[in-house]
Amino acid sequence: MRLPYNPLQRPSPPSPKPPPPLDLALLHSFPVADGWNSFIGAIRTRTTLSTVIRELAICRVAVINGALFEWEQHAPLLSEGGLSDEALAVVRDAKEETFSGAGSVAERVLSREQRALLRYTDAMTKTVTVPEEVFQELRDCFCEREVVEITATVAAYNCVSRFLVALDVGEKNHLH
Description:
Elements: H1 21-26, H2 30-45, H3 51-65, H4 68-80, H5 85-93, H6 105-109, H7 112-126, H8 132-141, H9 144-167
C-alpha cells in the first residue's frame, strides 16, 4: 500500500482474524471508515438483489477498474452463489461487446438479466453516461427498486475500486 496500514483498530470485540487491508487503510480516518462501512454494509446486506446479481456488478467493476483485491474478495461469492466457472471467466475476460450477440459465449452462459446488468455496469463504469437502449434493457429485466439498487451498487463499488487501486490496498491491483 502507498501508505502504511493503520495498526490502530476501533474498539470492538476481539476477532480471530485480523482486519482486512481495506479496513486498515480506512482506519486512518475513523469518521470515513465509519461512514464507509455503513454505506457499503447497506449495499451488501440490505438490498433486495440476489447474491449473483450484486456480485456480478461488483466483480465487473473490479475487472474494468483493475482492482484485483476487490475481484479476489468477491469472485468466490459469485461461485458460491452458483455462477459457473465459464460464466465467471466471461465476466473477467470479456469486452463489453461480447455480452450481446446470438451465439456468443455470454449468450450461452449468462441469463438475459445478467447480460443486461453487465452492459449497464460497463456503461456506468467506463463512460458514466448510460445509453437509453442499455438502460431500457436493464429496466425490462428489473423492477424500479432493483434498478436503483443496481445503480447504487455499481456506483459504490466504483468508489471502492478507485480507493483500492489509488492506494494499492492489498498490494496487488491492476487486474488487466
